[in-house]
Amino acid sequence: MHPADIAAPAPTGADGAKRVLLAAPRGYCAGVDRAVITVEKALELYGPPVYVRKEIVHNKHVVRTLEKRGAIFVDETSEVPEGARVIFSAHGVSPAVHQEARQLSLKTIDATCPLVTKVHREAVRFASDDYDILLVGHEGHEEVEGTAGEAPEHITLVQSPQDVEHVEVRDPEKVVWLSQTTLSVDETMETVRRLREKFPLLQDPPSDDICYATQNRQVAVKQMAAECDLMIVVGSQNSSNSKRLVEVALEYGSRDGHLVDYADEIDKAWLDGVQTVGVTSGASVPEVLVRDVLDWLAERGYADVSAVTAAEESLLFSLPPEIRRDLKAAGQESVKVQHDPGAIPSARKAEGSLR
């Protein structure tokens, strides 16, 4: 998709009037909300501490807030005391991590996003059929490590279109591509285009690997970008999908763009000569942080906020079975995760809110 193909939002009002274009959808996706609620419910059911392998989602505010409530985040399964309870993050883990947890007699709760689990199953399926699997993704990202761990002898990581010339496979008639779920749609498709030029019989995954939320948030930014003098993306530096939103904004016409965790990280100098500010947030960002940014902008004259809606989201995920089972045993109702990723926030939420 190119800039010319993207519908622009409504034109500006009075010349020189300051305004904010607020992307919809934005913020939490269903998989992130499910993972965060999993940790919250685990703390309620079992009491602290509850161990979490890696950051439950890639957001500084979420991690800090859950730490205050009693979650302990560790880098490796071996750091969890034998027999303790551990939650696996939304990004997924490899079979080797599950095996290590069993050896340590850990009580595991798997908060892997179901859309990541889908990619894992695709990798297992194609490896069992002896395909070479070209995994488009970023080296070192937890999701890539988990997916590659399903079939390491069959998977080759392809990080960018420039990597394609170095890719080799055993049989060009048995090759398939899969991807990390949080990538830039445009860059991934360019990588796949080059892979197909080199391997004409390259197979596609059974369905899109880049998740619906990543795609929808990028489309919303594309619709807004040409109208924006500045795009503020709320998200953490280790959030792949948040960083991609800044890149997409700049590619599609925003004059400037920045990634911030909190409103107080915004530099007032960014507003020099700025009439229209775009605001969005990555898929691991609670709405309370967007509200803070809107308040910060309103105090500086950007109180006119209009939503730019690219899609409606209604996907529901059940909580992990271990949590559902123990909620039922405790006489509590299990919930399916549903949220509104598009409404304009109207009120400041309580300190420490994760919504």
From TrEMBL:
Cofactor binding note of this UniProt entry: Binds 1 [4Fe-4S] cluster per subunit.
Q: Name one GO biological process term.
A: terpenoid biosynthetic process
Q: Which domain of life is it from?
A: Bacteria
Q: Which cofactors is this protein said to need?
A: [4Fe-4S] cluster
Q: Which UniProt keywords apply?
A: 4Fe-4S, Iron, Iron-sulfur, Isoprene biosynthesis, Metal-binding, Oxidoreductase
- The active site is formed by E143
Enzyme class label: oxidoreductase
Residue ranges of region Disordered? 330-355
Pathway the protein contributes to:
Isoprenoid biosynthesis; isopentenyl diphosphate biosynthesis via DXP pathway; isopentenyl diphosphate from 1-deoxy-D-xylulose 5-phosphate: step 6/6; Isoprenoid biosynthesis; dimethylallyl diphosphate biosynthesis; dimethylallyl diphosphate from (2E)-4-hydroxy-3-methylbutenyl diphosphate: step 1/1
Provide the residue positions that the database annotates as binding dimethylallyl diphosphate.
H58, H91, H141, S239, S240, N241, S284
Where does the record place a coiled coil? none
Q: Name one Pfam family in it.
A: LYTB
UniProt: isopentenyl diphosphate binding residues: H58, H91, H141, S239, S240, N241, S284
What residue intervals traverse the membrane?
Answer: none
Signal peptide boundaries: none
EC number(s)? 1.17.7.4
The entry marks the following residues as binding (2E)-4-hydroxy-3-methylbut-2-enyl diphosphate, namely H58, H91, H141, T181, S239, S240, N241, S284
The keyword Electron transport is annotated on this UniProt entry: no
Which GO molecular function terms does the record list?
4 iron, 4 sulfur cluster binding; 4-hydroxy-3-methylbut-2-enyl diphosphate reductase activity; metal ion binding
Question: What positions does the entry give for [4Fe-4S] cluster binding?
Answer: C29, C113, C211
Q: Which family does it belong to?
A: Belongs to the IspH family.
HAMAP family membership: IspH (MF_00191)
Task performed by this protein? Catalyzes the conversion of 1-hydroxy-2-methyl-2-(E)-butenyl 4-diphosphate (HMBPP) into a mixture of isopentenyl diphosphate (IPP) and dimethylallyl diphosphate (DMAPP). Acts in the terminal step of the DOXP/MEP pathway for isoprenoid precursor biosynthesis.
Q: What is this protein called?
A: 4-hydroxy-3-methylbut-2-enyl diphosphate reductase
Source species of the chain: Ornithinimicrobium pratense
- Gene name of the record: ispH
